[in-house]
Amino acid sequence: MPPLLYLASASPRRSELLVMLEVPFELVLPRVEEQRRPNEAAADYVQRLAQDKATAGAAMAPRPLPVLAGDTIVVLDDDVLEKPVDKADGLSMLRRLSGRNHQVMTAMALAWQGRLEVVLVTTEVSFRTLSETDIERYWASGEPTDKAGGYGIQGLAGRFVVRINGSYSAVVGLPLVETEALLRRGGVLSG
Ligand SMILES: Cc1cn([C@H]2C[C@H](O)[C@@H](COP(=O)(O)OP(=O)(O)OP(=O)(O)O)O2)c(=O)[nH]c1=O
What we know:
Bound molecules: thymidine-5'-triphosphate
Helix content: 25-40%
CATH topology: Maf protein
Number of strands: 7
CATH class: Alpha Beta
Structural class: alpha/beta
């Protein structure tokens, strides 16, 4: 099947989730700098990054097809927790998340025919209290390194999650319901 869409993402989770929407797609891999501006609100930041990725993807796409991109951040007390830069950073994120609620924000952007639309999905996630042993063992699993907030709900950190209020697929990196609607608006999906 010829592609109808490009996904501008190196995230294997985003590719796996997009498969669920049954639209043939190919990857483009733009490089976009991820740096929050002073006083930039978390919701603005995550939407800007998704838009930057979609725009950069459209600039390098080999064919004039719509380009989808996303960004995920974890927000705790107005602080943005991105991917841990090292072990100390990863352990400190997990200690902060322990026994508390935080928000996971995922923005998805679609660039097509010179247009750009972005949607933001915010999900509340509750963690149980984590012991130092939980935290050290989880870090040693290798799972936290490439994930916003230093955890993956779909993996070993699933056992830390007491409840979520919102979209599970958004926490993993691509909100299925909202992305399907976005792809309909962009004419990628019909019906
Ligand atoms: C909170 C959480 C994040 N994540 C992942 C989703 C994203 O892949 C990653 C956040 O990093 P992002 O910067 O959103 O994305 P990425 O760098 O992995 O990929 P790309 O920019 O090329 O699209 O964290 C999980 O897999 N599970 C979780 O529970």
